[in-house]
């Protein structure tokens, strides 16, 4: 997993601060799933294709990839939306698609940057609850950055950054 000590940051044993750009790109693709503030979906791709594009970056898409993508979307309540475009989805559906896309390459680490920023309170709780459930059931690590203190209840550990400084001790 992710480990930091004396200026070194390691991910699965790799000191990532010393890797070439090509190796860093490979690690970002294979080891890290990203969920952003806005879903950042490709407007001209159907929901299913949003996930398959991640596999396409890794190489060819096979039948198992398509089945896994479909299963992920079904688990996230999007089974009826596979052929829909982003403009046809609600904000919560877009974020659930982004969660599925982040999980597509079976990464060890999920990084979520303000994943509830564009959602109302109900959808925000649904999305973070779902994200938490998926991370735990798949035994992944996740780091969520948020200003929304209501979402802290879903976190195992909370670190508070003040004026750009991150204290070493967890606050909960």
TrEMBL record:
Pfam families: ABC_tran. Transmembrane segments: none annotated. InterPro entries: ABC_transporter-like_ATP-bd (IPR003439), P-loop_NTPase (IPR027417). Residues 1-172 form the ABC transporter domain. This is ABC transporter domain-containing protein. It comes from Paenibacillus silvae.
